[in-house]
Amino acid sequence: MSTSLDGSRVREAIRAAFPDAITESQTQDISPSFMYLPQSHAQALDPDVSIVSGIRGAGKTFWWRALSEEAFRNVLSDTFGLKQYATMDVRQGFGALPRDVYPNKDTINLLVAQGGKPEHVWRAIILSVLKNDTPKTAADWKSRADAVSVDPQLFDRRMRDFDARFGAEGRKVLIVFDALDRLADTWTDIRPIASALFRVSLDIRSYVNIRPKLFVRPDMLEDPGIVSFPDASKLLARKLDLLWRKTDLYALVFQRLGNVPAFGDEIRSFCASEFDMVWKQNSQTSAWMVPDKLRYEEGAQSRLFAEIAGPKMARGESGNKRGVPYSWLVNHLIDGREQVSPRSVFSALKTAADQRPMDDWDYPVDPKALSIGVSGASENRRNEIIEDYPWVNDSLKPLGEVGLTVPCEYGDLIGIWQPKHLIESLGQQSGNDMKLPPRRLDKGEDGLIDDLVELGVFSKLDDGRIQMPDIFRIGFGIKRKGGVKPLRR
Predict the structure, then answer these.
(1) 75-79, long-range: CB < 8 A, 24+ apart
(2) What pLDDT, on the 0 to 100 scale, is given for residue 21?
(3) Which helix (H) or strand (E) holds 195?
(4) Which of 2, 184, 314, 413 has the most crowded Cβ, counting Cβ within 10 A?
(5) Could you read off the pLDDT of 340-385 as tens digits, one per residue?
(6) CA-to-CA distance for 72 and 488, rounded, in angstroms?
(7) pLDDT at residue 483 tops 50
(8) Could you read off the pLDDT of 227-280 as tens digits, one per residue?
(9) Where residue 206 falls among pLDDT bands split at 50, 70, 90?
């Protein structure tokens, strides 16, 4: 049996829906019609949720940007029911993308180097954001930070004035912050600046009509140098995580495919004729919304994805033993904490769509292409975690070099690490401003293993052995019997 979808058209649509890499700078070009809101994310976007945590690629920067733009807020309000965003005034306080409304990291670090307390810098930024009056030069920013420093009550007076004015006007203002790991070039410099923003955000929560929202990575919330301050628990109690279930991921995939300008009508018509699933267009935003069955039902999602990637992961009668593409793809992209990001799914599908399908495969994407896609996504995830935690590469590179196969015993890891004096080497690096060093290094190799488990790089099986999910294993060149072959280095 073969699909009636045109293979080349489907692959073109995948390439259009999922660019080469979903990075912070590319979110500028994403259409609001590509937006999909899982229920857990709807809760995280509540203005009263101060901290939104998410792994790399989970959507922190996307939501930071989306909340700041009227077109995206209209979709949130009209399509997904977040009515508070119909009138919400959202302003950006900091992010990775260059903006005129807040100072860049170099200006912030200059102000701190010139003696300004990070708290005073953030208060000056917040007052400027609320006033819609942005200084043009570092000297102007310094003048405003100095004014806050000289008069300790200035910030509170002006915040009360803003709060009262917004209340009288019947509106609320949300200030969003992102990319806090880019506040400086070294982790030693990042910590005090980020911690100051957390403390100031806690103070802001006392106002009725002004709310802060910080999009942060989980590691920042685990760093005592950032969150160890009085009453931090009150702020962290308002934290929610950006998590993606399998159904959420595929709903997002279909949402994008159904809104690709040159292809969307084909897949929408196909869904209606073959599966009796009708897409509805939002009259306000013109976005086509994925049907409820493709949002919540694995069976419906699996049937449609089978029209794209086939019903099984191999040809022949025994093909089902290799798995079903719908489940296989996500299972090979999930980390040890059972989390997977849309970025990994997009990367895998985009790479798969770039492959020439097998001549005797009757679907747009074949199993070999999916395997190549997973390998590419693993390479990307490897690079990301090395950027965040350089010590992970020092720990895993020796495992790939000796041809380790997982699952393995504790002793196998220790037998590789100890001759290389890894713990001693990591200890020396930790004293040289290593970004986010291992937290349990004082416990030796056992502590290092626990740290890798905490990051989702390793997982522990019930029998005590150590397993490694494919999203990291492949990229680091580590073997697994019967698994996707590791990348050669």
Answers:
(1) 75/32, 75/33, 75/35, 75/282, 75/285, 75/287, 76/35, 76/37, 76/45, 78/282, 78/284, 78/285, 79/282, 79/285, 79/287, 79/289
(2) 55
(3) helix 187-204
(4) 413
(5) 999 999 999 999 999 998 888 999 999 999 999 999 999 999 999 9
(6) 42
(7) yes
(8) 999 999 999 988 999 999 999 999 999 999 999 998 999 999 999 999 999 999
(9) very high
Half-sphere exposure of 25 (CA within 13 A, CB side): 3
Which among 11, 17, 9 has a CA at the least distance from the CA of 250? Answer: 17
| Residues above pLDDT 90, as percent of the chain | 75
> By C-alpha distance, which of 261, 258, 260 is closest to 269?
258
What structural domains does the chain harbor? 39-241 (3.40.50), 246-383 (no CATH), 391-480 (1.10.10)
Residue among 376, 351, 346, 387 at smallest CA distance from 366: 351
Model's pTM, two decimal places?
0.91
The gap between the terminal CA atoms of the chain, to the nearest Å, is 40
335 closest CA partner among 54, 64, 62, 23: 54
CB-CB contact of 423 with 415 (8 Å): no
pLDDT band at 24 (very low <50, low <70, confident <90, very high): very low
**Alpha-carbon distances, residue 193 vs 147, 250, 322, 450 (angstroms):** 19, 38, 50, 29
Q: If residue 52 lies in a helix (H) or strand (E), which one and from where to where?
A: strand 51-53
Please answer whether residues 400 and 486 qualify as being in contact, where contact means their C-beta atoms are separated by less than 8 angstroms. Answer: yes
Q: What single letter denotes the amino acid at residue 138?
A: A
Q: What are phi and psi of 114, to 5 degrees?
A: -85, 10
Query: Taking Cα atoms as reference points, which of 231, 157, 170 lies closest to residue 201?
Result: 231
Residue 460 parent element (H or E): strand 459-460
